[in-house]
Amino acid sequence: MSVAIRGLGAVCAIGHDLPSLARAVRAGEHGLGPVRHFDVAPFAPVSLGGCVNDGAGCVAWAVRAVREAFLASGVEAAPARIAVVAGTTEGDDHDIPGVARAVAAALGARGPQLTLSTACTSSANAIGLGKDLLDRGDADVVVAGGAERLAKEMYAGFHRLGVLAVEPCRPFGDAFGTTLGEGAGFVVLTREAGDARAHLAGYGLSSDAWHETSPEPRGAGVARAIEGALRDARLAPAAIDYVNAHGTGTAANDDAEWRGVTAALGARAAEVPISASKSLLGHAQGAAGVLELIVGLLCAAEGTVPPTLRVGRGRPGGPPDPVATERPRPHHARAWLSSSAAFGGANAVLCVQAEPAPSAPRARRPVVIAGLGRAEVPAGARREDARWPELAGLDPRGTDPSGRACCVAATRALADAGLKVSGALRDRAGVFAGATRVSPESVEAYRASIERGGLARCSAAAFARLVLHGPTGLVSRRLALRGPTTTLAGGGLAGMLAVAYAARTLAHRDDADVMLALGFDERRVGERDGEGADEPEGAACVALRVGGDGPRVLGVGLTGPNDREGAVARALADAGRSRCEVTAWRVEEAAEHAPSLASAALVAEAAEAARAGGLIVVALADDAAACALVIGEES
Hints:
By secondary structure, this protein is of the alpha/beta class. It has helices at residues 18-27, 58-73, 98-107, 122-135, 152-160, 220-233, 251-265, 278-281, 288-301, 401-417, 440-453, 460-464, 470-479, 494-508, 564-575, 595-610, and strands at 3-11, 33-34, 48-49, 82-87, 113-116, 141-148, 183-190, 198-207, 242-244, 274-275, 304-305, 329-330, 335-341, 346-353, 367-377, 429-435, 485-489, 514-521, 537-546, 552-559, 584-587, 615-621, 626-632.
């Protein structure tokens, strides 16, 4: 069912609040100018960014945006029924869950506080997950969006990849290159329409399974995400009136995206306007999806679509109507798409409708835990002692310990399940993961490259792995799994949350039939070798499929911080079971070390026990959320 978009809030290069942003969009103004908050001399002649320039960081912007959105929404709810879902690549000072934590504190929200970190699709994915939380009854109000601050290390990495433009970017235009940006945006979602600005009808996720930083050239991943969004919204391609494209301005991205839009929408693609808001805002990375959605919503409210500035002569083979105007153009969009793409091959597409679209709920599909796999280096053991034959043929120079462990655990889980994913099933097999931190080894390699050669000669290979989603993308490429993909960030139960999200995706959607759910952790740099390595590291994987023999995920419960009992009650209700039927309980504290690995491993252990029969309840909680699963045979 669609959910109402009730409030908007934004801080970006062309507006530090919603009224100023609306005025700038209406006037066709852009915010792409010289970067001032760090020295861009090493990157000459590149010097531009879409910067906020107020001296604050992304957490402060997020709090401002969410307060504005919540006040504008006029909604009221008990604090325990307000959830927060935030997306970011790095947060402030690499504290990825810090955005969600700060937003929840600012609102006094006590529902689940979830963080998605899939680079430039983070905030779009966060909004999609927010819809799921409402659909499943986990909250009455969801505040969803994202935030990102443009840091010099990130600027250096994109510069080294050779994708930054000397002049302001020209999406779908006659010159190539992107302009980075920053900012924050949040939307308030509810089940009740109320005084809604619009309605989120559906969303879709996919993996290119192609390359760390380059899109699949045919746009097949974008097409699958669009198709997933349309299926979720129960709309045909002919219903789409407009597309707000990811449109970075780079040659590879724009061409691939247009091919993907054409593949998904068919003849309709040439009939609708397709514009790119990065020509106004710059590429705000983890906040890009939500800010571009907000720009589209502001224009839709006035019966217009945003312009694409500086298209010039256009691009051969590009969209026939890139809205190459200086100001928004009149056009009534009843249903439209907002598209995002990211490092690691992650794609996310949102589908928006002007009016609510009530629909009957889909039949719930049975979700079976088909296979389990682990790849661990115990505390005190040397990493080099782990000999994993599943890595044959994988060049270790292009990977990190997190990615290698995930590949091994995923391969073992598929083998344990007896699943051979090939042919058309590859498009319907996805990878969800939860992790505590970005690979310390890749972070250190990137820093070392800057120390050796300076910012302008940093390691592009190490930079490409500086996203939490990197190992997830590696698994997708290694196993050619092109279905939905995402990565959750957290300190206590991210691995279990990945299993829960994957199980719900299979149960309540129809764009995937197999999901791998991973939890992974990597030792800190100072503890990575020898007897001093007092942290375990590695990955645990749960392979899920629709139907078949084996223990099933019968119920999922998700509640707010440290509310294990509430999560257990919701999971049992979801499963239609009572406490007296439970034969074993695994209600534990979050692990101090390698918590994402440990939380996924806890689910795997419960599933192993359930293979012998009985009904198992497994639950964990931390300061962000509580999650419980009911695992057993169908009664």
